[in-house]
Write a structure and sequence with these properties.
Elements: H1 5-35, H2 38-67, H3 76-83, E1 102-103, H4 109-113, H5 120-133, H6 139-142, H7 150-156, E2 160-161
Parallel strand pairs: 1-2
Length: about 170
């Protein structure tokens, strides 16, 4: 069985394509192994431990009681083996502070600074505007303060309340 010159060229081209493809795959695998430095591996291990801790905390808070299955805590040995350390790495659940709604018609600058997205300068502008023009009474009136637009006002809606009534808009003559 003899091959013509065209068939030989086609076969040579096909073998070259296969060789280049294999070389690319081997180079990719080789560079992936080199990229995983000890520092990167340690960072990845820490992230995996944090994810495992968060998943365990989520299962403890929602899984056992609803499903009717008894809750089972992972043993210290299993946690230590999974994390690669000699002691268990169970992160304590963090308590987030609950915010009591702040009355923007009466709050001082320090109380306003405890609100999210409100810094010292914005808090002082809110107090100054309230002293000059009177109580806000609504989120729409709060937007008259420079630095508070519709999005910030909408974000603050869950954290604020108003005790006074807003002034009616002045009629221009």
């Amino acid at each position: 069985m003899s091959l013509t010159s065209g068939e030989r060229q086609a076969l040579t081209w096909l073998l070259a394509v296969i060789g280049v493809g294999a070389g690319v795959r081997l180079t990719g695998r080789w560079s992936e192994g080199a990229a995983a430095s000890p520092v990167a591996q340690e960072a990845l291990r820490r992230q995996l431990v944090a994810v495992d801790s968060a998943q365990r905390a989520g299962r403890r808070s929602s899984g056992g009681a609803r499903s009717g299955m008894p809750r089972r805590r992972p043993s210290a040995r299993r946690s230590a083996v999974a994390s690669g350390s000699t002691r268990p790495t169970v992160a304590p659940a963090r308590q987030l502070p609950t915010l009591v709604p702040v009355d923007l018609d009466q709050a001082d600058s320090a109380a306003l600074e405890r609100l999210p997205r409100i810094g010292p300068s914005l808090a002082s502008r809110i107090v100054a505007d309230r002293q000059r023009k009177g109580p806000f009474g609504s989120l729409e009136a709060l937007q008259r303060v420079r630095g508070i637009g519709p999005k910030v006002a909408e974000y603050l809606a869950a954290y604020v309340t108003f005790s006074g009534s807003s002034r009616p808009p002045a009629v221009l003559r």
